[in-house]
Each structure stands twice: as C-alpha cells, then as structure tokens.
C-alpha cells in the first residue's frame, strides 16, 4: 500500500518544553512533509543581536541587526538546518545566553513582521512542491497560517516541561538543573503570553493536546489521528 503523505499545513503551537520540535519533526518525516521551526528563526536573530554586542532591549538596534542578518532555514525534517551568515548555528542558538534574550528580541514588532514574512514564503513554497509542511512555534495558527488545515495547541504541566527541557539540555551537553529550568519555563511563559504583538495563545479553532502524561509515541499517534480526521492525507504516487 502506498505511503500516505501530508497535504497542506499542520500548525503546532505551544509553550516551551512541550516537545513541539521532536514531535513536529517526526510527524513531518512520517508523512513525507517538510518542517519549519519558527522559534529557531527568532533564536538565530537573537544570536545575531548578541554577536553584534547589542542590548536586546535596544529596539532600534535590534531591528537594524535583524534586517541585516543573513538567515536560511533547511526544511528537511531528518536534517533541519539553521544558517546564520552561511554557518550552521543550531547548537549555539540553544544555549542559555540566547534562551535568556530571545523573548525580548521576539517581542519587537518589526522583528516579528520580518520573520513572519519569511516564514510565509517558506510555507508557500512547501504548498506548491507539492506536499505539506509541519510548522511549529507560538503564533502559527493565530498569525502565520490562520488557514492551516489543522491547528494543534500542545501543552503540558510546567513541572513536566521543566523536566523535559533539563533532560534535553543534559543530553546535548549543556549545563542545566531542574530548579533553574523550571523558573525559566515560567519566565518564558509570562513573557510570551504577555507581549503586545502576537502573544502566545491558543487559536479559537485549535485542538488542545495535553502531553503531560504522554510519551513521544503517544503524542505522535494522537497527531496522526487528527491529521487523518481532517482529510489531509493523500496516497503517494
């Protein structure tokens, strides 16, 4: 039997530490789709800001750096890439310095306008490929792709998210402890939900999926069922 492929866009939103990246990549790979991590784009611009020695609170300078930054995203879910000025920065953008500054940079309206435009270009290209794309972030269903065929808001308890983030940091070789990670999760939640432009929130027509008691396989199973229920799968040629 031919393998089913995704047609259209799956928008996967939610706060930090819910497992969005892991399940988004796995879902895209399983359904022959491309993948876009919009959060990585904001992190890459934040890295550019820090490299330039700019204070993340200096809006004018942040905008200047963002406009000048050369950013490129690879959308293969099996090997996604984040290039800044032609160099891979995936590991660097996950570090504590970028994590501490990304909420401030991503709250700047001009930065969001710039990156949303780029995100929509990548999504439009995926839609005409032909095929589909799994897009993850915090404002995908509400701002970036409000007409997505499926919108999912992935959530989990703060304790579960902090534990997952800590485990991932340790696995990636970064220094981390549960208490500080828990505090950072709550800080990010407050900043992302409270910003004026495109705050983190669940789209009115999104399906909420609580992953607190689910492992990766369980979340992936639920997502696949939702994709099927929306008629977003087509048989491969």
From TrEMBL:
<keyword id="KW-0963">Cytoplasm</keyword>
<dbReference type="GO" id="GO:0036431">
    <property type="term" value="F:dCMP kinase activity"/>
</dbReference>
<protein>
    <recommendedName>
        <fullName>Cytidylate kinase</fullName>
        <ecNumber>2.7.4.25</ecNumber>
    </recommendedName>
</protein>
<keyword id="KW-0547">Nucleotide-binding</keyword>
<dbReference type="InterPro" id="IPR003136">
    <property type="entry name" value="Cytidylate_kin"/>
</dbReference>
<comment type="similarity">
    <text>Belongs to the cytidylate kinase family. Type 1 subfamily.</text>
</comment>
<feature type="binding site">
    <location>
        <begin position="14"/>
        <end position="22"/>
    </location>
    <ligand>
        <name>ATP</name>
    </ligand>
</feature>
<keyword id="KW-0418">Kinase</keyword>
<feature type="domain" description="Cytidylate kinase">
    <location>
        <begin position="10"/>
        <end position="228"/>
    </location>
</feature>
<dbReference type="GO" id="GO:0005524">
    <property type="term" value="F:ATP binding"/>
</dbReference>
<dbReference type="GO" id="GO:0015949">
    <property type="term" value="P:nucleobase-containing small molecule interconversion"/>
</dbReference>
<dbReference type="GO" id="GO:0006220">
    <property type="term" value="P:pyrimidine nucleotide metabolic process"/>
</dbReference>
<dbReference type="InterPro" id="IPR027417">
    <property type="entry name" value="P-loop_NTPase"/>
</dbReference>
<dbReference type="Pfam" id="PF02224">
    <property type="entry name" value="Cytidylate_kin"/>
</dbReference>
<keyword id="KW-0808">Transferase</keyword>
<feature type="compositionally biased region" description="Basic and acidic residues">
    <location>
        <begin position="173"/>
        <end position="192"/>
    </location>
</feature>
<dbReference type="GO" id="GO:0005829">
    <property type="term" value="C:cytosol"/>
</dbReference>
<dbReference type="InterPro" id="IPR011994">
    <property type="entry name" value="Cytidylate_kinase_dom"/>
</dbReference>
<keyword id="KW-0067">ATP-binding</keyword>
<dbReference type="GO" id="GO:0036430">
    <property type="term" value="F:CMP kinase activity"/>
</dbReference>
<feature type="region of interest" description="Disordered">
    <location>
        <begin position="173"/>
        <end position="193"/>
    </location>
</feature>
